[in-house]
Each structure stands twice: as structure tokens, then as C-alpha cells.
Amino acid sequence: MKLQDKVAVITGAGSGMGKEMALLFGREGAKLVLADISQATLDQVVAEVKDNGGSAVGVLANVAKEEDVQNMIDTAVNTYGSLDVLVNNAGIMDKMTPVTDVTDELWERVISINATGPMRAIRKALPIMIKQGKGVIVNTASVGGLYGSRAGAAYTASKHAVVGLTKNVGFQYADAGIRCNAIAPGGVETNIMADAGDMNMESRGLKKAMSGAGFNPRNGQPSEIAKVALFLASDDSSFVNGTVITADAGWTAY
Ligand SMILES: NC(=O)c1ccc[n+]([C@@H]2O[C@H](COP(=O)([O-])OP(=O)(O)OC[C@H]3O[C@@H](n4cnc5c(N)ncnc54)[C@H](O)[C@@H]3O)[C@@H](O)[C@H]2O)c1
């Protein structure tokens, strides 16, 4: 098993990619701390991991809240005694809102969940990992973090921030035995669009963002992203650090 007895924290574990990562990591022997803002879905995923013979505890945590992030990481150490893998996966969309329409409220919410949350979790996790002399961080970025208009202004900026953070942490702490990488998924069939709420189909933001959608060979399944996360979380990727793996069926290769 690729993660035998590794202690892994996964945010946004109640749905989509985070859920599939939890199930896969659980099957691979990890001891899991699963975090989400939704207690109901979290409980279901924890139960499913345990039904499969895995080990998991759920923590209700809003990654935009410093005290929740602290508690989430403390739970890993207090429950299992260490922290080997941190997956910053929780994220929200911005309804493809272009900058002329973005409110401060939307901008701050998206940045705080998608970018500040991962920074705080990494800030809290690193001293533990440095002390151990090893640790792995996996961030779920997006092709929106590599290109200019796959989403709205706030989402695009937040995911570019995640890519920059990934590279910075990867290089800065490489000599401490830490690896930090990101995944840039293309379109993946999850609940993220539904959770973002109704969109104005005629809006500039949506029309412009969708103008390249025809080049997308296909959407992916969350389980296909979970397999990339497993690669990055495990020793299989021991020489991979400070970089981004795109998983998009070739959408951005055009
Ligand atoms: N689905 C896609 O097409 C796609 C593409 C590229 C990147 N991503 C990224 O993948 C990641 C996972 O998204 P998904 O598509 O699986 O979506 P999803 O909506 O199915 O799952 C996201 C989970 O995160 C949780 N969450 C939301 N806000 C949170 C917060 N503040 N604190 C803790 N948990 C929170 C939600 O409750 C949900 O369970 C996100 O970072 C997203 O930006 C998604």
C-alpha cells in the first residue's frame, strides 16, 4: 500500500475530488483527518472510509477560518501523533464573474477559501513536518491557475496564487525534506458548479470563459484526479517538487 500508516489531512473531503482522494488514500493505508464545512457529507465519507477498512476522523472546518485550520491540523497530531500529508483541496467557484462585476465580498471569499486557507494550513503544518524531517503537501489548483480565462477574475487570481505558493513552498523547504506540488485539473464532474449557484448564461464572464470549452476533449471523473493526488502524496513522486501536474485530458495542450 502506497500510504501505509501515513497521516493525511484532506480539506474539502465531503464531495468531488476530496471525497475520492479520501476513499483512495484510505484504501492505500492512510490514517485520515477529513475536513469540510458540511457535517452531513463529511460523516458519510468518514463512514465509507471505515466501511472499506480504513481509518478516518472528520473535522468540521472552514478553511477560511484560522482557528478551524489550527484545529484541523491539531486533530491530526492529537489523534495519530504526526502529520505526513496535507492536501489543500477545498475550493469554490466564482460564477465566472469578470472583474467589472466582482464585488469585494465575492473577491475576498474566493481568495480566503482558495488561497489564504491553503497558506494557513501549510503555515501550521510545516513546523510539524520539518521536525519530522519529512512531509508532503498537495494543493488542488486548476487550469484556471495556469491560464487567464477559464473562470472569473477572483477564481483565476486565487488559483494563480495557489500555483505561486506551491512553487515557493516547494523550493524554500526542499532541504527540510518537504515536497509541495499542485494538481491543475481541467473540467471535472463534481458538485462545484452546482454549489456556486445560478449563473447568468448571457454574462460576459461566462461567455468569455466558455469560449475555449470546445477544445476540451472531455471532462474528467474525480477519481482520476485522486489518482494524481496519490502519486504526489506517495514516495512514487519522490523527485517531484515545486511543480504542477495538469490533468485535463489535453484541454490546455491545444
Ligand atoms: N470541478 C472542476 O472542474 C475543478 C477544476 C479545477 C479545479 N477544481 C478544484 O478542485 C477542488 C475540489 O473541488 P470539487 O470540484 O471537488 O468541488 P466540490 O464542490 O464537489 O467539493 C468541494 C468540497 O469543498 C468543501 N468546501 C467548500 N468551501 C469550504 C471551506 N471554506 N472549508 C472547507 N471545505 C469547504 C465543500 O463543502 C465540498 O465538500 C477545488 O479547489 C476546486 O477549485 C475543480
From TrEMBL:
Does this UniProt record's set of keywords contain Oxidoreductase?
Answer: yes
Which Enzyme Commission number(s) are listed? 1.1.1.47
Which CDD domains does its entry note?
SDR_c
Keywords, comma-separated and alphabetical:
Oxidoreductase
A GO term for molecular function: glucose 1-dehydrogenase [NAD(P)+] activity
**Cited SUPFAM superfamilies:** NAD(P)-binding Rossmann-fold domains
Q: What GO terms in the biological process aspect are recorded for it?
A: bile acid metabolic process
- Which top-level enzyme class is recorded in the Swiss-Prot or TrEMBL entry? oxidoreductase
Key word Oxidoreductase present: yes
Could you name the domain of life of the organism this protein comes from? Bacteria
Family designation:
Belongs to the short-chain dehydrogenases/reductases (SDR) family.
Q: What is this protein called?
A: Glucose 1-dehydrogenase
What high-level taxonomic lineage is stated for the organism? Bacteria, Bacillati, Bacillota, Bacilli, Bacillales
